[in-house]
Design brief:
3 domains, Chitinase A, domain 3, about 350 residues, two-stranded antiparallel ribbon, four-stranded antiparallel sheet, alpha+beta, about 40% helix
């Protein structure tokens, strides 16, 4: 039997899952997951026992030891050809795959793949999971603490009143004058007064905002607003009844016509309904506190050189794509890592 391809895939998926910190949301990682394997020591001879509890060392690749414990985890995913236990060839196949993965890892490191921002992000996530977040357990938070937090932050667990809004936006400025934009909007409103059911179609044909493809549907919006939607549009919507059509009004660099499609009333939840959310919120705050403390603790081990003059001269560009309900429209996304040097 040859499971080499499937086994390699399983190893890669396992590594990526570990990097992404995938685990049950309300459960801390197991001790085995939480304990990182140190590989920066002198290679041990095959068959020796490693002091970092990786088990008997089955092989070494460069300065990396492959221990029996890691081998057991991967081997457990392989189906024996005889249905009972792995043959010596199948055991060797597991080890060969692990050796290949270590070879590829070392080669990728030598090629500078670890300088890729995405790889660095995965490394940071794994570090935080292993050394910081794994120390937090659900049992750390008593029922009294959870209830107390809920009472103190009750408003955070309220579902606010929301309105579903459709919008047609006609820009003014370089493309056309304010008077021309207003005239187009007024004409579209007249059509809507006669045939309200055409709002979606008219928005797709005429609106000039990111929601055009959705027929002008901005989705459900709370009174505090939503990224990418002018506050004047939201304020206007909350003064309207369901089914009403607004007058033409100026907002967001042009003229607008909106209608309120639906409305959801404010909903208050009980502690019993929200205790899972309370636990997640308290854990999130604990993670943030531990993260800050961890960063402060290691900061002294490195020198950080940042050029504020150069930073101030950088041009900030908005994201190329606007994803509905994801990143705020126009939010700058720039990553300029400082020069970080390890102290000798």
């Amino acid at each position: 039997m040859n499971n080499k391809f499937g086994l390699s895939t399983a190893i890669l998926v396992g590594l990526l899952a570990a990097c992404n910190g995938e685990s049950t949301p309300n459960e801390a990682p197991s001790k085995a997951d939480a304990a990182p394997t140190k590989t920066d020591q002198a290679p041990a001879k095959p068959g020796a026992t490693d002091s970092d509890d990786i088990g008997d060392v089955l092989a070494t690749v460069g300065d990396i030891s492959i221990g029996a414990n890691e081998w057991q985890v991967v081997a457990a995913r392989m189906t024996p050809s005889n249905g009972e236990t792995l043959s010596i060839d199948e055991k060797q196949e597991v080890l060969d795959n692990l050796i290949e993965q270590k070879l590829l890892y070392l080669h990728a490191k030598n090629k500078g793949v670890d300088r890729d921002p995405k790889v660095q992000k995965l490394m940071v996530q794994t570090l935080m999971r292993n050394e910081v977040y794994s120390t937090v357990r659900n049992s750390d938070f008593s029922a009294e603490e959870l209830k107390g937090y809920f009472e103190e932050h009750r408003e955070d667990f309220v579902v606010p009143e929301k309105v579903q809004v459709r919008r047609i936006h006609i820009k003014s400025g370089e493309k056309r004058s304010a008077e021309e934009a207003k005239g187009i909007a007024e004409d579209l409103r007249k059509q809507l007064v006669e045939a309200p059911e055409k709002f979606k179609a008219l928005a797709k044909e005429n609106s000039e905002d990111p929601y055009r493809k959705r027929g002008g549907d901005l989705g459900f919006v709370a009174s505090e607003g939503k990224p990418g939607i002018p506050s004047d549009v939201v304020k206007k919507a909350f003064t309207m009844e369901v089914g009403a059509l607004s007058e033409v009004f100026e907002a967001g660099g042009g003229y607008n016509v909106i209608t309120v499609v639906n409305r959801r009333e404010r909903v208050e939840r009980t502690y019993e309904q929200m205790k899972g959310s309370v636990l997640r919120k308290m854990k999130s705050e604990k993670f943030k506190s531990l993260y800050d403390a961890y960063v402060d603790d290691i900061r002294g081990e490195y020198t950080v050189d940042a050029d504020k003059t150069l930073l101030g001269g950088l041009e900030v560009k908005a994201p190329r794509k606007f994803s509905m309900g994801n990143s705020p429209q126009g939010l700058p996304q720039v990553a300029v890592p400082p020069s970080i040097k390890r102290k000798e």
